[in-house]
From TrEMBL:
Organism: Paenibacillus radicis
Keywords per UniProt: ATP-binding, Cell membrane, Kinase, Membrane, Nucleotide-binding, Phosphoprotein, Transferase, Transmembrane, Transmembrane helix, Two-component regulatory system
This protein's name: histidine kinase
Residues in coiled coil: none
Compartments (UniProt record): Cell membrane
Domain annotation HAMP: ranges: 319-371
PROSITE patterns: HAMP
């Protein structure tokens, strides 16, 4: 039907000439916007995560500097070095530890183990408790490190016991091995439990709850902070975590496409001599490309509106241009059937109208020629008939006046 119809060809051509450029433009705009949104999101979130990382590291630096007050307090250092021997030294130890606790409001409790006389002291909620028994005291695994961060966990009494109620709360613990400044002899352990609320408040400014996810993971995959508080302190066994921890760069991004999460990960590592944490933000494609999809929907609605206009205009133009041709073909069909007196109606002044008028003039000329030829033929036959009649009259006379008298 298209091959044998000029009207259909015109409709298809006009629709293709309008639909294809607009459709191509929408597709290109969508993918360009999608890529631009992705690049902008990665850049802006990388800067945001870097700022969050800086704030967290500054906070941890403050805790670290606070733990060094053991060395700055000569009285407390001397007691740790020589042992807690009497009531007076115990009071001085409590005073020194409370000074450390009160210097940072997020510190929940502080624990000191003195190796010299195998004693330990815990100050929790401002209340001192001590363990003077001969049994082993709590000593964290330090792996020969001077300073170590223990991931998020529930607070405990460090085997000291407490006369007061110790409310359960999630904390991060900074353990410091106390050493003699000259001989590097191990003097004891200082453990500071501080609330995760500051880290939590910093992290909450880095993502949108319900849309994105934010994690802080250590180098073993344990969750320091995450969207689910029940998972804090647990190792997150996910394929994307293994991929993240294997990334060689200190910061960057990567895409992840697997159920139940499909999106982009933006990460930045927090590296110090005593910790290897990774701050990672997970942005699903659903929210990442929301603006691009909304823009595409608007373009699609505009496209549909214009398509209605384009199709209507295309049909109108096609029928407007081809109707005179169709009429002219109808006139030709009537002429072919023998009707030479077809009244060719012409209303347009365009090329088709000119063609129709020329065709009408041609048909008038043909009809005139036919009429002229027909008249000439009739006149010729009339003359022939007259001549024939003239020849018949003498013959008749001869037959009337014959010698026989007949």
């Amino acid at each position: 039907m298209i091959r044998n119809s000029f009207r259909n060809k015109l409709i298809v051509f006009l629709l293709a000439a309008t639909i294809m450029p607009i459709s191509t433009s929408i597709v290109i705009t969508y993918y360009f916007t999608k890529q631009a949104v992705s690049n902008e999101t990665i850049q802006s979130n990388s800067n945001l995560i870097y700022q969050g990382k800086t704030n967290i590291m500054n906070y941890l630096k403050a805790i670290e500097q606070n733990s060094l007050n053991v060395y700055n307090d000569n009285t407390l250092y001397t007691i740790i070095e020589n042992g807690d021997t009497d009531y007076l030294s115990y009071n001085e130890t409590v005073r020194g530890l409370q000074t450390i606790v009160n210097s940072v409001k997020e510190i929940k409790q502080i624990y000191l183990y003195i190796a010299k006389n195998n004693r330990s002291i815990l100050i929790s909620q401002g209340n001192p408790n001590r363990n003077d028994g001969p049994g082993p005291k709590y000593q964290p695994e330090m792996d020969n490190a001077e300073l170590k961060l223990q991931p998020t966990h529930w607070n405990h009494d460090y085997k000291v016991g407490s006369l007061f109620y110790l409310p359960q709360t999630t904390v991060v613990t900074m353990h410091r091995t106390l050493l003699n400044s000259l001989s590097q002899k191990r003097l004891g352990i200082l453990s500071i439990d501080f609330s995760i609320e500051v880290i939590k408040s910093i992290c909450q400014q880095l993502y949108t709850l319900g849309q994105d996810e934010l994690y802080i993971l250590d180098n073993d995959g344990a969750i320091i902070y995450g969207p689910n508080p029940e998972q804090w302190g647990q190792v997150l066994h996910e394929p994307w975590v293994d991929h993240l921890l294997s990334m060689p760069d200190s910061s960057g991004s990567f895409e992840w496409t697997s159920k139940p999460f499909t999106g982009i990960h933006i990460y930045d590592r927090m590296s110090t001599p005593y910790m290897e944490w990774t701050l990672v933000k997970r942005i699903p494609y659903e929210h990442l490309y929301k603006n691009a999809r909304d823009l595409t929907k608007i373009n699609a609605l505009i496209f549909i509106l214009f398509m209605v206009i384009v199709i209507s205009a295309t049909l109108y133009i096609s029928f407007k241009f081809t109707t005179p041709i169709k009429n002219l073909m109808g006139y030709i069909s009537k002429i072919q059937s023998g009707n030479m007196q077809v009244d060719i109606q012409v209303t347009s002044n365009d090329e088709i109208g000119i063609l129709a008028r020329r065709f009408r003039m041609m048909m008038q000329t043909i009809n005139n020629l036919i009429e002229r030829e027909y008249k000439l033929d009739i006149a010729n036959k009339t003359n022939q008939l007259k001549a024939f009649r003239r020849k018949l009259i003498p013959i008749s006379c001869i037959m009337v006046y014959s010698p026989s008298g007949r």
